[in-house]
Amino acid sequence: MTDILDRCLFVIGRQRSGTTVLRAALASHPRVHDLGELLHEQKPGGFYAELGARLAETASAGLHERWFDILVATIQRLAPPEDDKVLLVDIKYNGALNFGSLFVGPTMVNTLIHKLSLHRATVIHVLRRNKLSLLTSVEMARKTGQWRLQHGQERHIATIGLDLRKLPARIAAEEALDAYFTAQLAGIGARIPVVYEDMFMPDGSFAKGCFMQVAQRFAIEPAFDFGPRLAKQSAPLSTAIANFAEVSAQIDSLIKAGSLSPDYRTYLRA
Q: How does pLDDT run across 46-72, given as a tens digit for each residue?
């Protein structure tokens, strides 16, 4: 078990935070293999498919307690035969939350992250500071059904509206989710924090900092393709949000009330 986990790089983040575009660039390296979202319920051959197959074979007591062994077995089964490959595993926040929490002494911790910490896993934690942009991206993907936008198709493809009544609570919930995972992941020594807004250079290529850390961690040459294979949504919020004037006014009110960072004035121009 230890050997395969030593080769794994777990990319953890909220959906629409940039985990997929980062994975695509990391997987451009000849010694990096992308296993994808193994904890997605519909992933063919993923964790839940493996769990279902085992349950079909035996309903033995305690099988549910061996979930981490089943996750590791899934990774082993999907890994390429070459034993020098770094294995990318994408874990969205909701995938990690599905495993619940447990007490370690007096502290309640996320069960999956606790397991990764015990096995000294390497983790990239992706954050998206601009929650307004994140929520716009979520609503855009829901409206269009395009959760993966190929490079070269980053044109304005839809307009969405944001519910002003729910917006403050949604932003607060996203901030709280990031804070929770930042605290949970603090115990992982091999943790590489990545901020979506700092991920790209002005020309659209990737900043190299994260990639250099990965190369050093796994002792590989930094032979990555820094040109994006998937595109970030480039339409300005002012054209993507149908009720932008109202949203802007509400954001300004929340900043004045001290409920939001003044950085959101800059985010409105993103």
A: 999 998 888 887 766 566 678 999 999
Q: How far apart are CA 135 and CA 154, in angstroms?
A: 17
Least confident of 51-55, 66-70, 82-86, 218-222: 51-55
The helix/strand/coil state of 216 is helix
The pair of structure tokens assigned to 190 is: 């091999």
**Interval 130-188: pLDDT, tens:** 999 999 988 988 887 765 554 444 444 568 999 999 999 999 999 999 999 999 999 99
Comparing CA positions, the residue from 89, 94, 95 lying closest to residue 26 is 89
Residue 105: HSE in the Cβ half-sphere, 13 Å Cα cutoff = 2
Any residues with CB less than 8 A from the CB of 205 and at least 6 apart, and which?
A: 226, 227, 228
Mean pLDDT, residues 19-46 taken together: 94
Its pTM surpasses 0.85: yes
In angstroms, rounded to a whole number, what is the distance separating the alpha carbons of residues 39 and 118? 19
Cβ contacts of 145-153, under 8 Å, gap ≥ 24: 148/20, 148/230, 149/230, 149/231, 149/233, 150/229, 150/230, 150/231, 151/227, 151/228, 151/229, 151/230, 151/231, 152/231, 153/231
Number of residues that make up the chain: 270
- Is there a domain that residue 167 lies in? yes
Which residues make beta-bridge pairs with 103? 108
64 domain-assigned = no
Residue at 41 is within a domain: no
Domain count, the chain: 1
The range of the structural domain enclosing residue 263 comes to 2-35+79-267
